[in-house]
Amino acid sequence: YYSFIQPTSEAFEKLRVFMANRDVIVKRLTSSINQINRWVDIVFPEFREVFKDIKGKGAIATLRLFPTPSELCSMKAHEIVKGWKTVMNRHAGLKKAQMLIDLARNSVGSKQAQEAYKLHLEHLLEEFDLAKTQLERVEKEVTSVLDQITFAKKMIAIDGISEISLAGILGEAGDLSGFAHGNSLLRHSGLHLAEASSGKWKGQIKVSKRGRSRLRRFLFLTTLSLVRNNSDFKQIHNHNVKVKKMKKMKSIMKLVGKLARILVAIAKNNQTYCSQKVQPLTPLAA
What we know:
The protein is mainly α. Helix content is about 65%, strand content about 0%.
């Protein structure tokens, strides 16, 4: 068992490195958000009654300026609003500021080791800011590299395909014009069907998963996005489920193959996406 090595240009190599780096940054960003949530649960659990999303601008600004309930108890509503105005243009307003003070006075959070908790939160916010800045920088570089690939713009023009998902596919697969068919891309990702058998034992036919795992992930997530946002893929999915009586996951996996064939065809023939070629042959039953 062997496969020929397909040399790729520098643009595709850059995408592979950038997207691998992005995965690491996203994990760090998610970890910092989870730890900030844990900090709020311990020190000021009532905080979420005012700010539902911890990573929102208002919540992060409040945690920077006056994180602990003891600080909020000694302040007035207009002082909190004044502090918000120093870091953001739009703020929660006097009503929420007063609500924050009332909740702080009756908080059940930890009252001990306040200085230690404040230092811990500062470090978590620094990690959050660093990961967020790095993520924005990497995604900006990814966008600039995609502009250098001729067929990338035609793929991004398809409703449901984002720049990040396309960069993930191209970074792992390389130049799609080098693939003979969409099925070759599926085999490269490990999404082709294979029989799980051994000796005299014969098993079921399943997805082999012998290929690039990151490419599998981006093909699958891109297909889910197309089913939600692209009218053609949504129509095919409904046709598969309602008319052909397929299970939803089987329909999604079938559409992954269609997406692979569309991407390879666009790269090889330099054609634009044609909606008429994608729609099912038989219309949906009324």
